[in-house]
Amino acid sequence: MIESADIREWRTRDVVDPDGRRIGSLESVYVDTGTDQPAFATVIVGLPTRHRLVFVPLEGTVVGPDYVRVAHAKAKVKDGPSIGTDDVLPAEDEPALFAYFGLEYLPPADGVRVLARR
Question: What Pfam families does this protein's entry cite (predicted)?
Answer without folding.
Answer: PRC
